[in-house]
Structure formats: C-alpha cells, structure tokens
Design a protein that fits this description.
This protein has 81 residues and is of the alpha+beta class. It has helices spanning 19-29, 45-56; strands at residues 8-11, 36-42, 60-66, 71-77. A four-stranded mixed sheet has the order 1-2-4-3, covered by helices on one side.
C-alpha cells in the first residue's frame, strides 16, 4: 500500500451487507475529491459488492489486495463532490 497516500481508513469487517457499502460510502463522502480511502473488508459478499457499488457511484478503484487472513483491502480515489 506504499504506492498510495492514504487519506483515511475504514474497517467494515464488523458489519454485513448492505451496511458494508453504506459505511464505505459515508467515509468517502467525508473526503475531498482526489483523496484516497482504504477500506478493509471481509471476503465473500463485501468483496463482491462493495467495489462494484463504489464504481457505480463514479469513484475510482485503485487496488484490491488479498490480506490472506480472510480480509481484503480496497483502495479507492474519490471522484467528484
């Protein structure tokens, strides 16, 4: 993750869909355009749904990393305000 200057981090491993996307969206709304959010989420539904939903909102997916512990880290750049 050293490739990106992370502006904020949100851990959504303690919630289930659709709350996962809601928490990620709220965290993105608090950022300014061009800032980068790191989202830690569980494997399964969150990994399938959160990146797709964020992309549909118009934000840019920069990287999805398998943490090899049942979680993933999604790096997102906020687009627009």
């Amino acid at each position: 993750m050293a490739d990106f200057n992370i502006d904020d981090t949100v851990d959504i491993t303690d919630v289930v869909c659709p709350t996962t996307f809601v928490k990620a969206k709220v965290a993105l709304e608090e950022l300014d355009e061009g800032q980068i959010l790191s989202i830690r989420m569980n494997d399964g539904e969150p990994v399938q749904n959160v990146p797709r939903s964020i992309k549909e909102e118009g934000h840019k997916i920069l990287k999805l990393t398998d943490n090899e512990d049942g979680t993933y880290t999604l790096i997102v750049e906020k687009v627009g305000d």
